[in-house]
Amino acid sequence: MTHTPSTIDRPNTIPWPPIIVVCTIAIGVILNGLYSLGSPFGLVGELLFGLGLMTIVIAILIDIGAMRTMSKAKTTILPNKGSAHLVTKGVFAFSRNPIYLANAMLIFGLGLVFANYWLCLAMPFAAYATQKLAIEREEKHLETRFGSSYRSYKKKVNRWI
Q1: Three state DSSP letters for 126-161
Q2: What's the pLDDT at 41?
Q3: Which of 48, 58, 66, 138 has the fewest CB atoms in 10 Å of its CB?
């Protein structure tokens, strides 16, 4: 498998994941302003709000756990920087991409909390864009840097959940 020096040094030159999150939220807000998909009232509305709030809290906890684990491992959290160490503990034992999973959950949760269902509809597209623009490139980077250790980790832990 041949890799360019940039693949070895870092997975991307552009930090795509935060850009994707911000753009997805902005598009959802604009679409909701142009045409709201409605807002359920009563018990259904309250349940959706509660589910959204719970989803946001879990997303934040996953993010904090991932950041703390990466910090302890002395590797970067930045998606456009090279990894110094392979992180497989903490939330990384359940998802190879817990921060990106949390990003998707955050978008969905915000959609439920603010009854902006465009965000809920846009979340799968944001997750797909993240996979294509970041995750697949990061996987090549990690396989180049960590070889069989990363391939073994990939066999044990799913990409998302």
Answers
A1: HHHHHHHHHHHHHHHHHHHHHHHHHHHHHHHCCCCC
A2: 84
A3: 58
Q: Quote the DSSP letter at residue 11.
A: S
Query: Cα–Cα distance between 107 and 119 in angstroms, integer?
Result: 6
Question: What is the rounded CA–CA span in Å between residue 10 and residue 79?
Answer: 8
Contact 18/75 with Cβ under 8 angstroms? Answer: no
The residue among 111, 91, 94 whose CA lies nearest residue 156 is 94
> What CA–CA distance (Å, rounded) separates 160 from 70?
17
Q: pLDDT of 48-101, one tens digit each?
A: 999 999 999 999 999 999 999 999 999 988 888 888 999 999 999 999 999 999
State the CB neighbour count (10 A cutoff) for residue 115: 19
The closest alpha carbon to 149, from 77, 92, 78, belongs to 92
- Tell me how far CA of residue 54 lies from CA of 14, 92, 101, 131, 148, in angstroms: 31, 21, 15, 24, 37
**pTM of the full structure:** 0.90
Angle at 108 between CA 131 and CA 128, to 5 degrees: 15
End-to-end CA gap in the chain: 27
